[in-house]
Amino acid sequence: MVDLGKYADTVLSAYAVSLLMLVALVVLSIRRGRKVRAEMEMIEERGRKHG
Amino acid sequence: MIALLLRDLRLAMRAGGGFGLGLAFFLIVTVMVPFAVGPETELLSRIAPGVLWIGALLACLLSLDRILALDWEDGSLDLLATAPLPLEAIVTMKSLAHWVTTGLPLVLIAPVLGVMLQLPAGAYGWLFLSLLLGTPGLSVIGTFGAALTVGLKRGGLLLSLLVLPLYVPTLIFGAEMARRGASGLSVETPMLLLAGISAASVALLPFASAAVLRINLR
Amino acid sequence: MSIWEYANPKKFLATSEKVMPALWVLSIALCVGGLIWGFFLTPDDYRQGSTVKIIFIHVPAALMAINAWFMMLVASLIWVIRRHHVSALAAKAAAPVGVVMTLIALITGAIWGQPMWGTWWAWDPRLTSFLVLFLFYLGYIALWEAIEDPDTAADLTSILCLVGSVFAVLSRYAVLFWNQGLHQGASVMRAGAVAGDTEERVSNVFATPLFVCMGGFALLFLVLVLYRTGTEIRARRIKALLARERLEAEA
């Protein structure tokens, strides 16, 4: 482990907050993408059956 | 065009609310500030130009949704859009009517309120001039925001959010000009920039506002 | 073969699907690699101590915050001129990524500023410009959310993006003028300490991992925008299919 000296809190919190936000962005994007894709496939399937 | 302007002015006068609301808000803000920050003359005279500018800007912001909302609701905006007048001219007249009913009274009353905020003696002219140059820009930019949000049910908050960052340059140069005037510095640079922003907004933004209105009326 | 072929949503989806896995891997590898390099393998700065490590996040995020807006501007222009739906949806997809980047830049800047400048926030020109940029992003996203009809929303947000860009540039210069007018010496000194100026100051030890991180963030932005654009395209298709079903049900 690196020695961060007296600024350990500063550096670690900056990294933690940033990574958390980036991961949240990626996870939310992917979750919405999956949901939308599933919904689209469901509706397309329905369209093929009826139409 | 003149007829349209007069119609808007008459409506604003008769409705009363919009006309007085901005002024009353401006009055309240400037009168309440000394209660909040304390009565020291020195402090008040230092922040007076900024307080007067932010008061005027917020008062202007408060009345923006009235520019187009009423005409949108009763359908007269659709009629105006099909009128032989180009939509750009109509939008310009709407901005002008807003300025005459909101901006101009603010400009006229600001020096009076300056007395209450201990504005330095040399600053009155510059404050008056900076507001006179800046408020037309505020009205035109506000009309653009009003055009963007005209069809929306609860557009008020969105309108403020859209317009606020657009107001930043005008506010900075306007308040800076008044502040420099108050401390006896040269006001030339902020004055020219303020006038330039206002003039460019008045000249160009009606085209954007008209384009936006056309999309909204589609 | 022209770039406009990708204006076809099907073609766009098919191609982006093919390149995305590689992009995901590469962008995450670069981000993680660059950050690990920056975090574990660089020495402390003689003046800033270990807080210098924050620039490996702060600078790439700030860079992408501006580039994202620029990309939205180009996409909006393409939509206004050539009316390709993919372009409008790409601008919509990029905005939340841009806002997160802006927020990261602001927050890491504040965390860094606390021990370095002795304050979370200073009305330094750079910070203020980013705050204004943040407001622009919020307004843009809020307008997209507020309008029902997708084509109207695309038109209005494009015009807002064009007008907003002009005012964003204006604000940048206004803010520079404003703060220098207020407190000359101190602000210039502090502006010099803001990480954006570190390239001249910072030695190669920091520069190489910084460039790796910049590349990683840029690729991450690219792949996120591609992915989110795909999502928006599918969402639009759902809307269209549902509308058609309703029509058929009525007929």
TrEMBL record, chain A:
Top-level lineage group: Bacteria
Membrane-spanning residues: 12-30
Keyword Oxidoreductase listed: no
Record's bilayer topology term: Single-pass membrane protein
Residues in coiled coil: none
Primary role: Required for the export of heme to the periplasm for the biogenesis of c-type cytochromes.
Protein name: Heme exporter protein D
Annotated source species: Tritonibacter litoralis
Lineage per the UniProt record: Bacteria, Pseudomonadati, Pseudomonadota, Alphaproteobacteria, Rhodobacterales
Gene: ccmD
From TrEMBL, chain B:
Biological process (GO), any one: cytochrome c biosynthetic process
Membrane topology field: Multi-pass membrane protein
Transmembrane regions listed in the UniProt entry: 12-37, 43-64, 96-117, 123-150, 157-178, 190-213
One function term, GO molecular function aspect: heme transmembrane transporter activity
Cellular component terms (Gene Ontology): plasma membrane
InterPro entries registered for this protein in UniProt: Cyt_c_biogenesis_CcmB, Cyt_c_CcmB_bac
Keyword Transmembrane helix: yes
Localization, UniProt: Cell inner membrane
Keyword entries, A-Z: Cell inner membrane, Cell membrane, Cytochrome c-type biogenesis, Membrane, Transmembrane, Transmembrane helix, Transport
Primary role: Required for the export of heme to the periplasm for the biogenesis of c-type cytochromes.
Family to which this protein belongs: Belongs to the CcmB/CycW/HelB family.
Protein's UniProt name: Heme exporter protein B
Species, as recorded: Tritonibacter litoralis
Lineage: Bacteria, Pseudomonadati, Pseudomonadota, Alphaproteobacteria, Rhodobacterales
Gene behind the chain: ccmB
Automatic annotation (TrEMBL), chain C:
Highest classification ranks of the organism: Bacteria, Pseudomonadati, Pseudomonadota, Alphaproteobacteria, Rhodobacterales
Main location: membrane
Keywords noted in UniProt: Cell inner membrane, Cell membrane, Cytochrome c-type biogenesis, Membrane, Transmembrane, Transmembrane helix, Transport
Homology family: Belongs to the CcmC/CycZ/HelC family.
Keyword NAD recorded: no
Native organism: Tritonibacter litoralis
Biological process according to GO: cytochrome complex assembly
GO MF term (any one): heme transmembrane transporter activity
Protein name per its UniProtKB record: Heme exporter protein C
Membrane topology label: Multi-pass membrane protein
